[in-house]
Amino acid sequence: MTVIRSLNKFSTPKVFARFLTFQTLSTPNENALKFVSPTKIVPMENKTFEFTSSLQAVHSPLALKLFKLPGVRSVMLGPDFLTVNKQDHVNWAHLRPEVSSLLDKFLTEKQEPVITKELIEATEKEAAEADADDSEIVSMIKELIETRIRPAIQDDGGDIEYKAFDEETGTVFLKLQGACKSCSASEDTLKHGIESMLKHYVEEVQEVEQILDPEEEIALKEFERLEQNLKSKKNAEASPPPSL
């Protein structure tokens, strides 16, 4: 919200409030919403930053404020949009207006940067060093990701980050972010969409694997353990009782 004061010598000061209008878009992930801003958010071309906790968000004053809202699970900041992942028990009817109000206040007052200068410089340096060491195959993979894959994924409030390529096995390691991170369709996106495209254009690619954060790996193991327990219980109930 921007405050504009109108002054002249014949009238008392009048205050007008200018509000930003954010377009809120649903995503394939019911726990994620994409907020499209009429103004620039991240001051880097086609770059996103994801934060999964307030500890990770120390270099983003905006993300830190968003994590103070009850129910915010993760935040991904993009050039002109951001994606908020909520916890399962939280209702968007309550959280969405709080996020919009916070964004309006933060982006119009401009009292703090969205991300710090230190994070921008570190990111640019890391990207330059990585590109300098890229092989021809890795350069092709990265170009496909940037031009063919990322735009489509960002439309759905997510993003994808190249991590590594194993030349011996032909495996590309990627990290899904934003709305794609905890989406039930992420495996289909990874295998049937991204893997198929990379294998089609780069013959050295044999498969694509997703890299998970430590907390995601723990959650996946817990889910697999729960499924196994339910399966064992179901089999036990289906077994006939022992004869006397």
UniProtKB/TrEMBL annotation:
GO terms for biological process: [4Fe-4S] cluster assembly. SUPFAM superfamilies: Fe-S cluster assembly (FSCA) domain-like, Hypothetical protein SAV1430. Residues 22-110 form the Scaffold protein Nfu/NifU N-terminal domain. GO terms for cellular component: mitochondrial matrix. Pfam families: Nfu_N, NifU. GO terms for molecular function: iron ion binding; iron-sulfur cluster binding. InterPro entries: FSCA_dom_sf, Nfu/NifU_N, Nfu/NifU_N_sf, NFU1-like, NIF_FeS_clus_asmbl_NifU_C. Belongs to the NifU family. This is Scaffold protein Nfu/NifU N-terminal domain-containing protein.
